[in-house]
Amino acid sequence: MERQVFRIWPLSAPDIIYYLQISWEKDQDLGSGFTVTICNGEQAWSGRVSDNQITLEAKEAEMDREKYVDELRQALTTGEERVKNYSFDFFKDNDKEVFHFSYEKLLKDISFKLGSVELRKDLDSADVIKELINYVLHCNSELRDRNEHLQQENKRLSCDRNYSLKELEKYIKAKEELEQDLYSRFILVLNEKKAKIRSLQEKLKCVDEQVEFKSQSRTAVATSQETSVAEEDFDCSTDEENKGSENRTWSQPSRSANVPSQSDPIGSSLHDVIDIAPSRKRRQRYPQQNKMAETPKDSPEKRYEFVF
Predict the structure, then answer these.
(1) pTM attached to this predicted model
(2) 22 beta partners
(3) Lower CB density within 10 Å: C or N end of the chain?
């Protein structure tokens, strides 16, 4: 049997404290029906809300049955925390020896009735009160045991927390020392790397200067060589021109005695020097032929001058 006990202050008697007990079958909810018991410390009243009555009240409230059952659970089983959201009333019917217990939900400006149940006075109110007291004592004992267990657990967790804080402080200290050591080593390595980089940069600068010097020297040597070659070419060309002029000077008398060909006057004049010279000496014995030979002298000389 599941049950819930808490205090209520009825609207008809707000100065009087009543104890409300809601009990229902185990492994079931309030939708299957529940029993209401109210006690003022001297007398007790009880009544039963059936499954059909819950269905009828849900229709009267124009609510879905599941939602209505959930509203009943919040109003009757959540304890005194819901007093501000719900109101209860307990009053006697004038015509009968019947009491009515009603429960309503409070909204901002209005309230609507969730349900009500008829209660009758128990013949043995002392047993009902005793049962309520036993249940309250049992709940109190369970709460104390749970509280003690939670206190022990809290103490254990506090000890673990203190131990963890101490270990954390040790780890922080070790971490800081390790960071300091690593930082100092890193500084040394960094300085060594910087010195190495500077030395490499200096070496690279020296190598660049040597390469630049060599390239400049090679350029100067190549320039001087080109200048000497140009001078040699100029000297050779001058010698060749001088030789050519001498050859032309020596070849002019022979050309004047020749009759060159139309295609190559220079080549024909060279051949003429070798072949015609003896016949020319022989021709000088005849005075008539000299006149014949003097006539072509003008033409070769004029052609030679035309060529050169």
Answers:
(1) 0.51
(2) 4, 36
(3) N
